[in-house]
Amino acid sequence: MFGRSTYDYDDDGFRRCSVTGLDIHRSAEDMVKLYGLTAILALAVGGVFAVFVALTRWEVVGLLSPGDFYTYLSIHAWNLLIFWMVFMEIAILYVGGPFVLGRKLALPSLAKAGYVAMLAGAVTVNAAIWLTSYPNNAPLLTSYVPLESSWQFYLGALVFVLGAIVAALPFFATMWREKRENPNATLPLVAFGAFATSIIAFEALVGGVLTYGPALLWRLEILATLDSAFYRQMYWIIGHGSQQINLLAMITVWYFITHVVGGAEVASQKVSRTAFVLYIFFINMGAAHHLMSDPVVSTGWRMWNTSYAAYGAVLASMIHAFAIPAGLEAGRRAKGKGGGLFGWLWSGPWDDPGFSATILSIVLFGFLGGITGVMMGQMQLNMTWHNTLAVPGHFHATVATGTTLAFMGLGYYVLRLVFGREWSLGPIAKIQPFLYGGAMGVTVVMMMYAGVLFGVPRRHPTVMDIPGTEFSFEAAAPFFAIFGVGALVSIVGGALFVVVALATLFTGDEFEGGPVGDLSRTVADGGGSDHEPVHEQSMRGTFVLTLVFFATFVVLTALNWYLLSNIWGIGP
Amino acid sequence: MDSPLDEPEGNWWDEAVNRRETLWIALSAGWALSLFGWMIGWTEFGDQNNVGQTYSITPDEFQTKVADFKDRAEDTERGLVPADEDVYVGALQWGWDGLPVVLEAGETYRFHLGSYDVQHGFSVRNEENLSQQMSLQILPDYEWVVEMEFDEPSTYHVVCNEFCGNGHRSMHSTIHVEG
Ligand code: HEM
Ligand SMILES: [Cu+2]
């Protein structure tokens, strides 16, 4: 597809990847290219709008008028959080299923139909937002009823969601055929992760139908009213559920890339798989943490869902947080690639953007995104985070930094292993993950400071100048200055990824194959039995790192509770 | 070799788990339980809990209640002095009905939060110390009653932090707490 690949297929349409050893069928590969490139296109669109959004919130520049700000913010959010992520995730399902299992893509026509529907939905949503006019409002990400957005917007969202459901079916069908032909085989871990992702995706997308279906009927005046509390609950099944898809897809990519590029092994199949199962059972409860400072839902409901139940998912994340670096540590120690406590890490192929993007993704996601998510998921602490700029700070740490970096890392390998092209602009590719990750790290921390320490609201174009009052958030201005610079640098970092990807596609040399990173997977596999089992390798470096993470977690949680305890008395 | 891309070999379920990995899982599970316990405990021992009764009510009925509250309150230059411990806040596009109010430090008030139109955010902060701040969601068709007791005399600024249309940024009012 696109004629930009350098690979040939055999008569059955298969080829063997010289790096991963996977047997890849053309039917799956074509779709991975199609969905992957569309995702990158959405990233570019959303990134352009990030410029306007960031330069408006940095009020020294104050680029857009308030009305325009909401329109641009909506387009930014939908293209990045929804279109970039979901197109990429369908590609990941097709890698995790057909690629890893060495199968054709089942029901390929549904993959195409799903693509057409998703694309039509995405274009409709963008057009509807852009053309919003009175009495309709920009939907932002959440389009909370009863504030009206245009019916075309709800229609586009519904079509997109339905398209994504259709696009997931070929993955399920591939899995089904695999199981029928090999009933006793165990799925490889990456395929298992993709399967867990798809189940959660399915739940989320059903939530999407329950959100946008009724909302569309309400806007077409077929339903007279739509309860705002009902909408919020349904909305967050997809709104948060789609974040769980991002999370699982990202973790699957972490296992994949650390293995292919860094030589990681699976520290314990049992533990990692159990963690994925925990997600299937518990992660949807996480959706409730958006309703922590809401009326209507009872205290018991909130506490049960966000804590008792959601901690099943937090536990799963903590398990992966250990298992993935531990797999890397054990795998590299076994291959003589690491002495001392952290030798396995420092000696890694840091000049490989697939590797550096993945490691940065793991670290930044955990420290900045994971910890803050658990904190604001505690019912009382939520009051100090709810709807402040700290919330976008949190999810720019998770999706915009962690997941986006992981998908960029994967993207680099799609260019090599799927399109068969060596990266053009190599030196830029090498620094790109550091530039994007580093600047995003600074940007999100500033957003969190402004939100929690100054109570600066989110979705607000002029906090330094509020019409009709002397009061303003002037005190937070220095934080906004750092935020503004960080945002600009991170946008440059993100743009460089798109530039390298396009340059590679159009001018990249043929990828020679052979070892990537600093280890050959095929050699590593060949040497299967000549070292001790993985679990007997030392994992002391990882243990130290996770203890640092744990200490940070405890200290930040304590600080947040301390801040909360300084507020006036609230509640009974 | 235990690759995530291949079918695991042998009886992987009974494969031993590294001692440090087991320790980490135990530590994580303990932490999750502590967080849960702390949250429950805070409802008993803590002074900040976003907890209160919700009632269904139409926007019109709620507006009548706010009007009644304003009638009974004493009108002063700085704002309304409530007749009793009930304070009614009606959020609307784009303003705060029932505010500004003048309250007494150390008294417990029952805030009745509701909306006349769309969703809004009741976001309050102490002018002397902006990090003393909190937010509660306001939904149309519901009245949420949350108690508040301000200890420090100061001016507390209220802004809306749920997007509610183009005038959203202009929603501002105050709560004056006097000693
Ligand atoms: C290039 C770097 C980026 C910068 C500088 C940036 C900046 C911002 C800023 C300043 C806001 C507005 C916050 C507010 O006023 O409430 C925002 C909102 C948002 N951004 Fe980004 N962003 C970036 C990348 C991303 C990415 C990669 C994603 C998703 C994967 C993303 C998803 C969102 C979403 C969902 C919103 C919230 C919209 C809403 O409130 O409905 N952003 N971004
Ligand atoms: Cu508002």
Summarize the SSE layout with pairings:
The complex is a heterodimer of chains A (572) and B (179).
Chain A: E1 14-16, E2 23-25, H1 26-57, H2 66-101, H3 108-130, H4 151-181, H5 189-219, H6 228-262, H7 269-282, H8 299-334, H9 343-346, H10 353-376, H11 379-385, H12 390-417, H13 426-454, H14 477-507, H15 521-526, H16 540-565, E3 569-570
Chain B: H1 19-45, E1 53-56, H2 59-72, E2 74-75, E3 80-81, E4 86-92, E5 95-97, E6 101-104, E7 108-115, E8 120-126, E9 129-138, E10 142-149, E11 154-160, E12 172-178
Parallel strand pairs in B: 4-7, 6-12
Antiparallel strand pairs in B: 1-10, 2-3, 4-5, 7-10, 8-9, 8-11, 11-12
Copper (II) ion binds at residues 120, 160, 162-164, 168, 171 of chain B.
Architecture overview:
By secondary structure, chain A is mainly α. Chain A has one domain: Cytochrome C Oxidase, Chain A, CATH 1.20.210. Chain A has 16 helices and three strands. A two-stranded antiparallel sheet of chain A has the order 1-2. With 179 residues, chain B is an alpha+beta fold. Chain B has two domains: 12-45, no CATH class; 53-178, Immunoglobulin-like (Sandwich). Chain B is 23% helix and 39% strand. Chain B contains two helices and twelve strands, in the order αβαβββββββββββ. Chain B has helices at 19-45, 59-72; strands at residues 53-56, 74-75, 80-81, 86-92, 95-97, 101-104, 108-115, 120-126, 129-138, 142-149, 154-160, 172-178. In chain B, strands 1-10-7-4-5 form a five-stranded mixed sheet, covered by helices on one side. The mean pLDDT of chain B is 94. At the A-B interface, helix 2, helix 5, helix 6, helix 7 and helix 8 of A face helix 1, strand 8, strand 9, strand 10 and strand 11 of B. Strand 3 (569-570) of chain A pairs antiparallel with strand 10 (142-149) of chain B, so a sheet runs across the interface. The site of copper (II) ion (CU) has 7 residues of chain B, from loops. Chain B: InterPro entries: CcO_II-like_C, Copper_CuA, Cupredoxin.
